[in-house]
Design goal:
seven-stranded parallel beta sheet, binds zinc ion, about 450 residues, seven-stranded mixed beta sheet, alpha/beta
């Protein structure tokens, strides 16, 4: 066998997320995603003990937290390390979607490495950078190239075809990569039980038609998992019925980037004659994504949406108390006083960081819908935070509900996808249950952190 195609897993092997997969074929070298593991830093950093802005990769190399690979990182990141800066030998990095476990370590890369991402992914990245400049930063890249579904991108002799999939964030893609060994399919993160499942169906059809040599499939939900097996439509129905029977204000928490969930909550509010109240950040996110997502309401124009302004410096709700981007939404302003007066009129988006507003709103007979990942409600590591949430609910006598479905395909759907795409070789990634894939396919290769699989 001459010139095997090599896959090296610097992240995403036997863990959910952190995908960072090097594909080498002849002289071509590309990365599939460049994310940060969910448990990144957990063993060495804690609250006040965090790397500072001045720190480079020396801190992460010390603990083996990022691969010590030459010709990859930027000069400034390597300055205080014992790895010498050299011109990179990576031809491209392909990003599947904008979740941190797929994109967050882009900021370490040398500026000269070309980075490819979907136009929707890029819009989300820009939007989050504006509202959370310190947390959301992909760094500088001289060549940032935006693709759309169906493009065929040439990198040396490789052809990479991004195809949209449905996930819990817009702008998510899988890739078909045409290598010297034959086509290789990389799913990214995907699901089939939401309103945009036709996107994933199209990806599966094209992947199957390519008759791939290998399939790298995400397996987040392969084992048992705490997520209920709802479809997004069932989640919407559940939220609607909670809102319908509520005698007070309804609070709902979900990720701002989960636009399908936004539609579910928005529809539940409108059908019950309630105004949906979002904060200024959420209003900005909706505004930024409107030209990319069909049917997304215009915050300034839509009577069903109001924008919550928290009390700030002067306490008088005047423009100078708020950032420039927030001021645009002042004509749609509601404050705690408005909400307190007529509580049954509203459904408010409200995360953990907005619990403080309850002190001012003084909710009576209220309901709180937790419409986000249930890992937070299950995991031991969140116990302290969860206790605080429960205490607030009890203190204000708020009824607590859950309504959620996963952004990832169920075990049942994963099996269907494997059978339909029918690859020669199956490589389970983005899962803690890679072993469960054995028995589903005749040639399963198990990825291991830092190790190479030759095809
Ligand atoms: Zn992921
Ligand atoms: Zn994801």
């Amino acid at each position: 066998m001459s010139n095997p195609v090599k896959l090296t897993f610097y992240g995403g092997a036997n863990e959910i997320g952190g995908n960072k997969i090097l594909l080498e074929d002849r002289d071509a070298r590309i990365y599939l995603d460049f994310g940060q593991s969910f448990d990144f830093g957990e063993d060495y950093f804690y609250e006040w003990l965090q790397p500072r802005a001045a720190n480079g990769l020396e801190v992460y190399f010390e603990f083996g937290m990022v691969p010590k690979t030459p010709r990859l990182y930027s000069r400034s990141m390597l300055e205080l390390t014992d790895l010498k800066y050299e011109k990179p030998d990576i031809d491209a990095v392909f990003i599947s979607h904008s979740h941190s476990d797929h994109i967050d370590h882009l900021r370490f890369l040398d500026e000269s490495i070309p980075v490819y991402m979907g136009h929707g992914t890029h819009r989300i990245v820009e939007t989050y950078h504006r509202i959370y400049p310190q947390f959301s930063d992909i760094g500088e890249h001289e060549s940032l190239r935006l693709f759309k579904s169906g493009d065929k991108i040439k990198v040396k002799h490789l052809i990479i075809e991004p195809i949209h999939v449905e996930h819990s964030i817009p702008g998510a893609y899988g890739f078909i990569i045409h290598t010297s060994k034959g086509p290789l399919v990389y799913t990214g993160d995907f699901r089939l039980h939401g309103p945009r499942s036709a996107l994933t169906q199209e990806f599966i059809e094209k992947a199957a038609a390519a008759k791939p040599y290998a399939l790298l499939i995400e397996g987040t939900r392969m084992g048992s998992d705490p997520e209920t097996d709802y479809t997004e439509a069932e989640v919407e129905a559940k939220i609607e019925s909670i809102v319908k029977s509520s005698k007070g204000m309804v609070f709902a928490y979900f990720s701002m980037s989960n636009i399908d969930r936004f539609f579910s909550v928005y529809n539940a509010a409108v059908r019950n004659g309630r105004k949906l109240v979002v904060d200024t950040r959420f209003a900005y996110v909706l505004d930024s994504l409107r030209d990319k997502i069909e049917g997304l309401p215009d915050v300034m124009d839509d009577d069903n949406i109001l924008v919550y302004f928290r009390m700030a410096k002067s306490g008088k709700f005047v423009p100078q108390d708020y950032f420039i981007y927030e001021r645009k939404y002042m004509p749609k302003m509601v404050t705690y006083e408005d909400l307190a007066k007529d509580q049954r009129k509203y459904l408010m988006h409200s995360g953990f960081n907005k619990l403080m507003e309850l002190v001012y709103i003084q909710p009576k007979d209220a309901d709180y819908i937790y419409a986000s990942s249930e890992h937070f409600l299950e995991g031991e590591e969140n116990e302290a935070e969860r206790t605080v949430l429960e205490n607030w609910m009890r203190h204000f006598k708020v009824r607590f509900h859950k309504a959620h479905c996963s952004g990832h395909a169920s075990r049942h759907d994963l099996i269907q996808v494997i059978n339909t795409i029918d690859p020669k070789v199956l490589i389970p990634i983005h899962t803690q249950r890679a072993g469960d894939f054995k028995g589903l396919h005749k040639d399963v290769r198990m990825p291991e952190e830092g190790r190479t699989i030759e095809l």
